[in-house]
């Protein structure tokens, strides 16, 4: 069975550069919306045992968009990125994802995972063909209320340019098409934003 993949590029920038970058993305994308999402990261209950054995545990992530009332949770997991030798231009990693109608957090616990951390992301989401571009500041969580704490004005903005849904490397949908799509955005943003691959 062939893997499904995510293809992505990343960047960070200072708040003073927000307006020109926002304008450039808006100009070159089909749609732009505000985003505010909550993400809860889980690790396997035996994560310490796995690390002691020299294995990196696979995290499970549950994400929910807060700007869309009634939207469900998306649960996903990434495996280790493919080597830079194989894909020097972009981060390519196996990706499994599914939608959860009810309580995804309880479901993750039932699968044998424990909560590791959670955070909120607030900013903008753009669609460009097969790509989802997210531009956001990360918000911390008030441990008493579990609500987001607005990001400080100086907080760095993060950008993720990635395939909106998993890509299967087939003759009809070769990975090279997805890589070309993210590299096109890298070229469009040249001189204003330095998009690059990273091993995450």
Write structural notes for this entry:
- One of its GO terms (molecular function) is transcription coregulator activity.
- The chain is an alpha+beta fold and 200 residues long.
- Helices cover 19% and strands 42% of the residues.
- The chain has a single domain, classed as Hypothetical Protein Pfu-838710-001 (Beta Barrel), CATH 2.40.320.
- It is built from 4 helices and 10 strands, in the order E-H-E-H-E-E-E-H-E-E-E-E-E-H.
Strand ordering within the main sheet: 1-5-4-3-2-6-7-9
Order of helices and strands: EHEHEEEHEEEEEH
Fourth-tier CATH superfamily name: Hypothetical Protein Pfu-838710-001
Major sheet description = 8 strands, antiparallel, barrel
What share of residues is helical? 10-25%
The first-level CATH class name: Mainly Beta
**Any idea what the radius of gyration is?**
17 Å
CATH topology: Hypothetical Protein Pfu-838710-001
Number of strands: 10
For the record, give the distance between the C-alpha atoms at the N and C termini, rounded to a whole number. Answer: 24 Å
- Taken from the alpha-carbon principal axes, the silhouette is globular
State the low-pLDDT regions, or none.
none
Number of helices: 4
GO molecular function, one term: transcription coregulator activity
Organism: Schizopora paradoxa
Protein name: Mediator of RNA polymerase II transcription subunit 18
Subcellular location: Nucleus
């Amino acid at each position: 069975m062939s893997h499904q993949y995510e293809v992505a590029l990343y960047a960070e920038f200072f708040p003073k550069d927000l307006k020109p970058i926002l304008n450039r993305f808006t100009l070159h994308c089909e749609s732009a919306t505000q985003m505010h999402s909550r993400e809860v990261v889980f690790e396997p209950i035996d994560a310490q045992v796995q690390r002691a054995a020299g294995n990196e545990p696979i995290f499970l992530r549950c994400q929910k968009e807060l700007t869309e009332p009634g939207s469900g949770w998306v649960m996903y997991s990434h495996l280790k990125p493919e080597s830079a030798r194989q894909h020097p231009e972009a981060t390519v990693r196996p990706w499994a994802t599914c939608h959860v109608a009810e309580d995804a957090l309880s479901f993750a616990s039932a699968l044998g995972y424990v909560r590791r951390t959670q955070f909120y992301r607030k900013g903008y989401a753009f669609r460009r063909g097969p790509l989802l571009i997210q531009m956001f500041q990360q918000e911390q969580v008030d441990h008493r209320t579990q609500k987001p704490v607005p990001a400080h004005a100086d907080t760095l903005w993060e950008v993720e340019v990635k395939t909106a849904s998993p890509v299967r490397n087939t003759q009809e949908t070769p990975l090279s098409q997805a890589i070309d799509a993210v590299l096109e955005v890298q070229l469009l943003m040249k001189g204003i934003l330095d998009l690059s691959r990273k091993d995450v």
